């Protein structure tokens, strides 16, 4: 594949340079790239996608949602839920008051009260409960709750905890009556210790979030630019003026392609920066649960992640440009390009759930998956250089292939004048 | 090899799009310092002919040379010696007029020091100077057309193609473009212009070619055509086109 890619590059380069000197070809590419990028920068949509959206969206996505979840958990943990009691047990109710696990209440129709959410669970105590317990018997208590309501589910957990503690108290009393030590029931005690370093934990967090956002912004970042500078040119009637100038179709497509890659990577860099700022400084400030976590991305890893992201961005940009060249109008280009978002983002989401694929070489040859398996390895600190090389070469090959298709399309009369 | 004075030479030029034969053997030549008009109703094949001569479309038959370069064998060389104003050409709205003209100059390989002086010169001639640093999005249609004319001429080409240059322009802008066509002629350029406005053709063109249904139905000097038929250009045009349709 490497040989084929090199052979293609040589043929393409020699072909592009036939009848024109290479310095001139580069000057054309630079001129087209400069003009397209200037227009893109002056387009508010590009700046919105590259800077404003990541700056606003990333803190919301990485901090806002976890913060709301933490807030809800906090409420569930601190508020004592009202639980309707059916039946009698002085000991159990006393324990409920002393532990403050639940607030026992009486209700005429406990099930109706649960449905009306005036209580969050119902604890059903059987008749003669205390007598059964006193006779060393086994009593069955019931809990009714609403599984579709997170607060009711949390109240159920509290009831389970209450029953467990009450059970433990009774067990302790029964064992004491038989002159037995409660520790005899627990001959082995497990002590746990997490050996993961801050770097690994930070890597895990980044590996679960960053690939998705890189994929998303690589597509979204270049989308409006790709649509504008091919299909948009057709619609505005400027494409024909460009095609009658000396630059070859290769130079025209390369100049435009570099501009789309710039917008795409600009958005990716923006999103990485916004995310790192959010995670490093926003997380500890807003989220108590991760206060100890030092989120960081070592420079070497960051450079490699950017390198792989650049190749992915190049592939996405080349495909977007090819679709935009083929489209009759910006509207049609938008329709062609939108599915690309799903085609790329879904595999990236799946990457973290198919970790067994990570060990096989083919995963590093499959388009899209290759880049994100490699990025995941880099972030987790488990990089395999062979995998990284495979992912890099295959991503470059796919990007070059897509670019070649874009050049072929730009050279076809039936496509250029497809209106 | 073409006659040195002949800057544009088309011999039996043909274009077929799948089953549709758009141009069925067009032949003509055009000299420096001459305005050559391509006349014909909509769909006659004028734009297709211009697109073949400007290397955007590849002829399916025949040949053409621009300043001695074959449009099929040496399209890159052809593109260096032509200036083109396509039909309904748009502008880059987020560029200033200066940026847009400079961009064209860079594509044509005009040296940077020459380019800036040339922008000033062309802007002056087109009365664009006060508007050079405004975004072209804010321009009127006539002003946009002037920017496109400037882009087409920035490299001082000997051959200029104008496809319906006054289409959709107001009277003042159209007149301004016509003045430019006459100026190109005085500067010794070969101007090939398509139009369906007979009055415009009479005012500007030295010779005309009438195309209908992809075929040349008449070609010659205006005076020659009028003398031969005893009719005005519009009447000649109508008669020939009607005959072709029948």
List strands and helices in order, with pairings.
The complex is a heterodimer of chains A (419) and B (246).
Chain A: H1 2-17, H2 22-42, H3 44-78, E1 82-86, H4 90-99, E2 103-105, H5 110-115, E3 121-124, H6 129-134, E4 142-145, H7 150-177, H8 198-236, H9 239-243, H10 249-286, H11 299-326, H12 330-351, H13 369-380, H14 385-411, H15 413-416
Parallel strand pairs in A: 1-2, 1-3
Antiparallel strand pairs in A: 3-4
Helix pairs in contact in A: 2-10, 3-8, 3-10, 8-10, 8-11, 8-12, 8-13, 10-11, 10-14, 11-12, 11-13, 11-14, 13-14
Chain B: E1 6-17, E2 20-31, E3 34-39, H1 46-53, E4 61-66, E5 69-70, H2 75-81, E6 82-85, H3 97-107, H4 112-125, H5 141-153, E7 159-163, H6 171-186, E8 190-195, H7 198-204, E9 207-212, E10 215-221, H8 222-229, H9 233-245
Parallel strand pairs in B: 3-8, 3-9, 6-7, 7-8
Antiparallel strand pairs in B: 1-2, 1-4, 4-5, 9-10
Describe the structure.
The complex is a heterodimer of chains A (419) and B (246). In chain A, 71% of the residues lie in helices and 4% in strands. Chain A is mainly alpha-helical. Chain A has two domains: 2-67 and 197-416, no CATH class; 81-185, 3-Layer(aba) Sandwich (D-Maltodextrin-Binding Protein, domain 2). In chain A, helix 8 (198-236) runs parallel beside helix 11 (299-326). The longest helix of chain A has 39 residues, at 198-236. The two termini of chain A are 37 Å apart. The model of chain A has no long low-confidence stretch (mean pLDDT 88). In chain B, strand 9 (207-212) and strand 10 form a beta hairpin. Chain B has one domain: P-loop containing nucleotide triphosphate hydrolases (Rossmann fold, 3-Layer(aba) Sandwich). The radius of gyration of chain B is 18 Å and the shape is globular. The N and C termini of chain B lie far apart (39 Å). Chain B has nine helices and ten strands. In chain B, the strands form two sheets. A six-stranded mixed beta sheet of chain B has the order 6-7-8-3-9-10, with helices on both faces. A four-stranded antiparallel beta sheet of chain B has the order 2-1-4-5, with helices on one face. Chain B has helices at 46-53, 75-81, 97-107, 112-125, 141-153, 171-186, 198-204, 222-229, 233-245, and strands at residues 6-17, 20-31, 34-39, 61-66, 69-70, 82-85, 159-163, 190-195, 207-212, 215-221. Chain A binds chain B through residues 19-20, 24, 27-28, 31-32, 35, 38-39, 42-43, 236-238, 240-248, 413, 416-417, and chain B through 51, 54-58, 74, 76-77, 79-80, 82, 84, 86, 88-95, 99, 103-104, 106-109, 148, 151-152.
């Amino acid at each position: 594949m490497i040989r084929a890619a090199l052979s293609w590059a040589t043929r393409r380069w020699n072909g592009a340079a036939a009848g024109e000197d290479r310095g001139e070809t580069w000057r054309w590419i630079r001129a087209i790239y400069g003009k397209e990028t200037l227009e893109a920068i002056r387009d508010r949509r590009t700046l919105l996608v590259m800077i404003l959206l990541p700056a606003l969206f990333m803190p919301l996505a990485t901090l806002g949602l976890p913060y709301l979840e933490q807030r809800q958990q906090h409420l569930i943990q601190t508020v004592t839920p009202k639980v309707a009691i059916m039946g009698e047990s002085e000991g159990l109710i006393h324990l409920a008051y002393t532990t403050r696990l639940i607030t026992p209440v009486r209700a005429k129709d406990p099930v109706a009260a649960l449905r009306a959410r005036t209580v969050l669970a119902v604890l059903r105590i059987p008749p003669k409960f205390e007598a059964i317990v006193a006779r060393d018997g086994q009593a069955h208590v019931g809990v009714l709750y609403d599984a579709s309501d997170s607060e009711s589910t949390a109240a159920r957990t509290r009831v389970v905890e209450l029953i467990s503690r009450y059970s433990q108290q009774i067990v302790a009393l029964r064992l004491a009556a038989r002159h037995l030590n409660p520790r005899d029931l627990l001959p082995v005690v497990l002590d746990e210790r997490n050996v993961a370093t801050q770097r690994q934990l930070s890597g895990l967090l980044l590996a679960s979030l960053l690939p998705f956002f890189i994929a998303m912004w690589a597509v979204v970042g270049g989308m409006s630019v790709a649509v504008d500078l091919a299909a948009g040119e057709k619609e505005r009637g400027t494409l024909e003026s460009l095609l009658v100038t000396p630059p070859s179709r290769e130079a025209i497509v390369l100049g435009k392609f570099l501009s789309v890659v710039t917008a795409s990577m600009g958005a990716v860099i923006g999103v990485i920066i916004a995310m790192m700022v959010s995670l490093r400084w926003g997380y500890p400030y807003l989220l108590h649960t991760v206060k100890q976590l030092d989120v960081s991305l070592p420079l070497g890893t960051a450079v490699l992640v950017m390198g792989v992201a650049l190749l992915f961005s190049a592939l996405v940009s080349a495909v977007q440009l090819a679709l935009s060249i083929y489209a009759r109008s910006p509207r049609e280009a938008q329709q062609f390009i939108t599915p690309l978002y799903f085609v790329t983002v879904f595999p990236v989401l799946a990457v973290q759930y198919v970790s067994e694929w990570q060990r096989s070489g083919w995963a590093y040859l499959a388009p899209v998956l290759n880049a994100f398996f490699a990025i995941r390895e880099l972030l987790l600190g488990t990089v395999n250089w062979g995998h990284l090389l495979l992912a890099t070469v295959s991503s470059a090959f796919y990007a070059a292939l897509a670019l070649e298709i874009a050049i072929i399309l730009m050279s076809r009369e039936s496509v250029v004048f497809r209106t | 090899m073409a006659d040195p004075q002949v800057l544009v030479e088309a011999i039996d030029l043909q274009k077929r799009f799948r089953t549709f034969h758009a141009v069925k053997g067009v032949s003509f030549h055009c000299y420096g310092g001459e305005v050559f008009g391509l006349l014909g109703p909509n769909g006659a094949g004028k734009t297709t002919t211009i697109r073949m001569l400007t290397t955007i479309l590849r002829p399916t038959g025949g040949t053409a040379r621009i300043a001695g370069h074959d449009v099929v064998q040496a399209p890159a060389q052809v593109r260096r010696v032509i200036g083109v104003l396509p039909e309904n050409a748009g502008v880059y709205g987020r560029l200033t007029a200066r940026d847009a003209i400079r961009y064209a100059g860079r594509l044509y390989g005009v040296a940077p020091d020459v380019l800036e002086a040339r922008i000033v010169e062309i802007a002056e001639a087109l009365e664009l100077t006060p508007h050079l640093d405004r975004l072209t999005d804010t321009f009127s249609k006539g002003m946009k057309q002037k920017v496109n004319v400037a882009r087409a001429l920035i490299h001082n080409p000997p051959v200029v193609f104008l496809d319906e240059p006054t289409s959709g322009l107001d009277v003042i802008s159209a007149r301004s473009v016509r003045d430019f066509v006459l100026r190109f002629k005085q500067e010794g350029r070969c101007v090939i212009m398509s139009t369906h406005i007979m009055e415009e053709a009479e005012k500007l063109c030295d010779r005309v070619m009438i195309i209908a249904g992809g075929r040349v139905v008449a070609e010659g000097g205006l005076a020659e055509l009028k003398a031969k038929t005893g009719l005005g250009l519009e009447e000649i045009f109508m008669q020939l086109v009607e005959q072709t349709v029948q």
